[in-house]
């Protein structure tokens, strides 16, 4: 049938014919509506009205955790079959409340812990794990970014409606790596680049057969009766959102502007909240008056503005707020804001100055999610303290440790607790800070953070005391499923095991010699590791005259003043390689730097060194940690970076230089010919120097090895792939960082923590000279622990004597560094005729039990070595 348009005249007639019918229809409708006594306003659909009314009645309702939990709704997600029962026998259980129990049995099935006690089951059909006294703990819980979609940096700085779930990839390699560190649950927060980053989501570290991100959610599969389903949110103050505003020439460009943005956004949300409350008042009033016909009386549906929904939930107390704020006055500003708009702050993240206002945080009931000793990388992080955990805890503030993954690899979250314990934080509180503490702050301590009946079967079996250096999980259970099993599990779980904790430091105080003493004899030494030829001998001493070593060993005659080292361990002064000590104080503050090189000319970095520890916290912290020498380099906008070795005020050499090809713009693979030509020209300027290349990828290393006379590889995440070739060409490797992650394309072959063999062992066994360093100066004071971690991962670790362990750890930061950079005789050993540079520990160097008691750098001797 063809379409025939109506003419203008026909259409005109049609309209007039239709009008009487329309009027009649309206009159007819009005008659029947009026007859029933109902207003002519038809209102909204009944289902829409009832849905709004339900939301009104749920405004002030928060679910209560179940008292007797008998199932874990997550275990059967994704079509998985029920798990058989598992019985862990004879474990040393260190629970989330810090309580330690020995010879404990733990029974769990279908994702939930059923029983915890002694001799639980006689006849058992299921898997039996004989723990042989190994430590068992609850899961750890950090905050980390599961994908790179962490910040929405477009126009507005306040985007509370964004969701981290939308950027979460279940295939992120980091998830499996982190789980291997004993972490079974993570709160994935949006980034801190804007004032309001958005809503956070908590995930379990277990990928389901469905391959869905939503099945990994902590709250997945839960019904209302299964417990409270809290929501979480991220905000940020201070440098990050301010610097973002400055880059875009928009608000916020200052803390004043940031304060206004916060208030404006909260005010908008508050107006939406008021509108909801007003609607609820009208709806309830109409419902009472008209019952089933109330929906015909109301003029609009329940207001649900998408931009304000998360903020309204926060104002109603249904969202737990995590605020990224460092400095004390930023913390105060956020607290003022919370009082103005009546919302609660659950935890301040990073919060490295929180110790300054500990009583205020205790009064407010706000926790702190901090690092143990990560500091100094920007102005906000400069006035931190390694004593923060105990200062805060003593004031009544709950302390939890975070990873800020990938800044710090969340796989090693337990290491943050271990370091804090080294600095004086109570061991039980340190464990709580990565188990029950964060679980409580997330509102989840009724289901995770403890090994108790009714809790999720998230359990970790450790290879040693969890706060010892290099502690690794042997097996990790998430929802009762084995999500990680160490390659050496079967061998490790049955070996003889010492379940004692690490020894507490006795806080040994060693005297320093009189400033006028020309000769000093250091005696009462437990172990003297003077160099690569050192062997243990009883009654060793070190004699120093006018800042020079004149005798070492057990056959020396005492001279001058006698200094009792109180059974301490002595190793050469540590050498920090490829760092910026003395040249740059805060990496993000150009005003604290000696500048950078913008040409390919070789410039002596020693000319830019600051004078003395008095004006540098970085130098002071490093020196008190036993670092007496540093190979410091300028920043560079070109590939060539001159490096020179120096003590903190003395220049030793000036003809070393470093090539940086680690950045994508300097990738060897992108412009190989031009890069090599430039490098070759600069090599020609140095006759006796060392060529050090900062590079990670095996492909890049291979290209460089076959085209340049390289002496040192710095970084070396994939260097183990070419271990044999590096050994043949006599190229040293400075691993930095020592515990690598596959964080870039050129680090995919990196062997992460817990691998067997390790990247270091492959290089060492091939005959490569290996040293270590840190990627940032704030890691320098912990370098000796990095060395100890490498030693703890050696296949023959349990066969080594204490002296051999100390010697191996010392080599990575002393004579191996000197060998790599051709500095033998200047640094790296304690040798007769050489300047006296050594460090004394009250325990085995490389362990967390040991603390520095004395640092000697020729005439400079320091015994006030506490870190702050």
From TrEMBL:
Q: Does the keyword Transmembrane apply?
A: yes
InterPro entries, per database record: Amidohydro-rel, DHOase/Allantoinase_Hydrolase, Metal-dep_hydrolase_composite, Metal_Hydrolase
Transmembrane portions of the chain: 12-33
- The record places domain Amidohydrolase-related at 387-485
Q: Which GO terms describe its molecular function?
A: allantoinase activity
Identify one Gene Ontology CC term for this UniProt entry.
cytoplasm
Q: Which SUPFAM superfamilies match?
A: Composite domain of metallo-dependent hydrolases, Metallo-dependent hydrolases
Record GO biological process: purine nucleobase catabolic process
**Coiled-coil portions:** none
Keywords (A to Z) from UniProt: Membrane, Transmembrane, Transmembrane helix
One Pfam family, short name please? Answer: Amidohydro_1
What name does the UniProt record give this protein? Amidohydrolase-related domain-containing protein
Q: Which organism is it from?
A: Boothiomyces macroporosus
């Amino acid at each position: 049938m063809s379409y025939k348009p109506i003419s203008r005249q026909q259409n005109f007639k049609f309209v007039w014919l239709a009008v009487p019918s329309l009027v009649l229809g309206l009159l007819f409708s009005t008659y029947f509506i009026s007859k029933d006594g109902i207003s002519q306003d038809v209102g909204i659909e009944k289902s829409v009205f009832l849905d709004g009314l339900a939301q009104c009645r749920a405004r002030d309702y928060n679910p209560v955790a179940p008292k007797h939990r008998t199932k874990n709704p997550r275990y059967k997600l994704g079509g998985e079959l029920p798990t058989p029962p598992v019985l862990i026998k004879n474990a040393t259980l260190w629970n989330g409340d810090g309580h330690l129990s020995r010879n404990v049995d733990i029974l769990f099935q279908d994702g939930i812990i059923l029983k915890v006690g002694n001799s639980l089951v006689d006849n058992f059909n299921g898997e039996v794990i004989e723990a042989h006294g190994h430590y068992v703990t609850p899961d750890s819980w950090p905050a980390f970014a599961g994908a790179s979609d962490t910040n929405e940096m477009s126009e507005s700085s306040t985007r509370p409606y964004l969701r981290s779930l939308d950027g979460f990839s279940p295939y992120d390699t980091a998830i499996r790596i982190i789980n291997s560190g004993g972490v079974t649950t993570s709160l994935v927060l949006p980034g801190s680049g804007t004032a309001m980053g958005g809503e956070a989501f908590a995930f379990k570290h277990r990928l389901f057969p469905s391959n869905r991100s939503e099945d990994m959610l902590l709250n997945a599969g839960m019904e209302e009766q299964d417990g409270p389903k809290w929501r979480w949110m991220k905000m940020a103050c201070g440098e990050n959102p301010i610097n973002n505003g400055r880059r875009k020439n928009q608000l916020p460009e200052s803390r004043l502007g940031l304060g206004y943005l916060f208030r404006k956004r909260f005010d908008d949300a508050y107006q939406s909240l008021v509108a909801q409350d007003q609607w609820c008042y009208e709806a309830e009033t109409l419902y009472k008056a008209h019952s089933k016909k109330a929906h015909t009386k109301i003029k609009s549906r329940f207001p649900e503005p998408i931009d304000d929904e998360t903020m309204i939930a926060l104002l109603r107390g249904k969202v737990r707020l995590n605020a990224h704020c460092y400095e004390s006055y930023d913390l105060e500003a956020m607290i003022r804001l919370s009082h103005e708009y009546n919302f609660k702050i659950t935890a301040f993240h990073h919060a490295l100055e929180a110790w300054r206002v500990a009583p205020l945080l205790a009064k407010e009931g706000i926790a702190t999610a901090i690092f143990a000793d990560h500091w100094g990388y920007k102005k906000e992080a400069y006035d931190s303290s390694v004593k923060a955990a105990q200062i805060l805890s003593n004031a009544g503030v709950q302390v939890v440790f975070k990873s800020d993954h990938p800044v710090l690899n969340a796989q090693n979250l337990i290491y943050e607790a271990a370091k804090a314990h080294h600095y004086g934080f109570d061991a039980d509180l340190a464990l709580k800070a990565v188990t029950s503490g964060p679980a409580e702050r997330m509102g989840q301590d009724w289901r995770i953070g403890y090994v108790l009946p009714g809790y999720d079967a998230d359990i970790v079996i450790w290879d040693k005391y969890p706060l010892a250096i290099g502690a690794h999980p042997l097996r990790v259970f998430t929802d009762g499923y084995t999500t990680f099993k160490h390659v050496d599990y079967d061998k490790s779980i049955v070996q003889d095991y010492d379940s004692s904790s690490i020894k507490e430091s006795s806080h040994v105080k060693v005297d320093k010699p009189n400033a006028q003493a020309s000769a000093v004899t250091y005696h009462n030494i437990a172990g003297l590791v003077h160099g690569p030829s050192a062997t243990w001998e009883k009654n060793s001493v070190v004699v120093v005259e006018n800042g020079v070593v004149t005798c070492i060993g057990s056959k020396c005659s005492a001279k001058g003043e006698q200094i009792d080292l109180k059974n301490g361990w002595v190793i050469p002064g540590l050498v920090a390689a490829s760092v910026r000590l003395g040249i740059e104080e805060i990496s993000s503050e150009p005003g604290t730097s000696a500048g950078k090189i913008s040409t390919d000319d070789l410039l002596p970095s020693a000319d830019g060194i600051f004078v003395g520890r008095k004006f540098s916290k970085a130098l002071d912290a490093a020196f008190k940690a036993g670092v007496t020498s540093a190979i410091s380099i300028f920043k560079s906008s070109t590939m060539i970076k001159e490096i020179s070795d120096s003590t903190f005020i003395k220049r030793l050499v000036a003809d070393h230089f470093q090539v940086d090809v680690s950045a994508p713009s300097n990738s060897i693979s992108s412009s190989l010919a031009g890069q090599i030509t430039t490098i070759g020209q600069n090599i020609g300027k140095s006759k006796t120097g060392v060529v050090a290349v900062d590079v990670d990828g095996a492909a890049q290393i291979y290209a460089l090895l076959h085209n340049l006379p390289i002496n040192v590889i710095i970084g070396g995440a994939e260097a183990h792939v070419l271990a044999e070739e590096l050994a043949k060409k006599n190229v040293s490797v400075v691993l930095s960082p020592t515990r690598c992650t596959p964080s870039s394309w050129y680090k995919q072959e990196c062997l992460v923590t817990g691998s067997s063999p390790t990247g270091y062992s492959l290089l060492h066994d091939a005959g490569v000279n290996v040293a270590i360093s840190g990627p940032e100066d704030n890691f320098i004071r912990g370098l000796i622990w990095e060395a100890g971690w490498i030693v703890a991962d050696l296949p023959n670790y349990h066969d080594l004597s204490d002296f051999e362990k100390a010697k191996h750890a010392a080599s990575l930061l002393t004579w191996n560094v000197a060998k790599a950079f051709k500095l033998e005789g200047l640094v790296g050993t304690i040798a007769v005729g050489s300047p006296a540079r050594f460090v004394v520990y009250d325990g085995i160097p490389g362990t967390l039990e040991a603390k520095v008691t004395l640092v000697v750098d020729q005439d400079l001797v320091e015994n006030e070595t506490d870190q702050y």
